[in-house]
Amino acid sequence: MRIAFITASSLPMPPVNGGAVENLIDIILKYNELSGEHDITVYSCESQKALDMADTYKKSEFIYINTNSVFYKLNKGLLYIINKISKRYHGNAFIRQIAKLIYSSDNKFDAIIIENRPEYAIPIRKVYKGDIILHLHNDLLNKDTRYSKAIIKSQNAIYTVSDYIKGRVQSIGNNIYIKTIYNGVNIDLFNYEIYAQKREDLRQKYGFKSDDIIFMFSGRLNEAKGIDKLMEAFVELPKELNTKLLVVGSSIYGKTKEDAFLTRLKQIANKRKEDIIFTGYIDYNDIPKIHAVSDIAVIPSVWDDPSPLTVYEAMSSGLPILTTDSGGIPELVTEECAIIVQRDAKLTEKLKDEMIKLALDNKLRERMAYHSRLRGENFSKERFASVLLNEVNIKFK
């Protein structure tokens, strides 16, 4: 099949600047490089690093939009104003350029997949008569979404990353075909056994003792991720439990700008400064080493997290998980590998109680770790790519 992927516009493909959605697209492209089944075109914003890497792909063509030109920026500003005051969506500078390119290509694609920008389907439908599929990663299309009816009318199918997101789309009340396709990660990279022998050496790097119980949080330091609730719970744990909190990927120290939330985190951390360790930036390929150091992954999201990759990664590493009833998280885990607490006024207290239970019960942690690894095997990057491409192939060929 001839398949086109339309990215959001903010980050280039290949994913030289990272990006969760961009990395998931790349999983699909690399899977297709091996299978050779499809001819794929990717529309992306321009980047010299991305251009250089594009040559390494044999089954994918990359078409770049120059988002730094004066003309593009003027057009972007004008369309922003027009869309603000208009009852119809006229597209932004990025998607309008892509629409012109698709129109001039004489509808050469068998299917177009739009990544996480529901409204892009409206201008694309005007120039393309084939099948349009929305791959939806966030809660961006529901009964309260502007242009929701026009967006649905412009699509042939929607793939969502969780049943939670699927339910939000269904709130619009249309009979469009919707299928949940869960994300995937490199489960070989996160294989705990690779780093098991180095566990003690890695622990010493962060000053941990062999009998310390390490709770790990990985993610951005913002209120939606619940890091403040976790830290508040942690500082209340009895010190004799020998617990540490490892905060991966961010730091509250050395920031040139500090908002009220960051100030609050500092105040909490100062209560047990010696037991709360901020790693700062960690290269993605080194995250499994941090998992090997840890005993429990804590994912305390307070917003409706659609399908966080941190859950997939923790399961692939065989870590027991303490998390919340957030968004799509309960769909990903099982009661054998995760403890799920409700998000309410007592969240901090509930986290503290479950952390104490996990710290005291080594057998429980071992059982959960075993089931976590088993569950993680269901979410390989190969499964994700093959399910999505097979779905397109069967339904829209």
Automatic annotation (TrEMBL):
Residue ranges of the Glycosyl transferase family domain?
199-373
Which Pfam family, just one, is annotated for this protein?
Glycos_transf_1
A single Gene Ontology MF term assigned here is: glycosyltransferase activity
Q: Which InterPro entries match?
A: Glyco_trans_1 (IPR001296)
- Could you tell me which Gene3D superfamilies the record lists for this protein? Glycogen Phosphorylase B
User: What is the name of this protein?
Assistant: Glycosyl transferase family 1 domain-containing protein
Species source reads Clostridium cadaveris
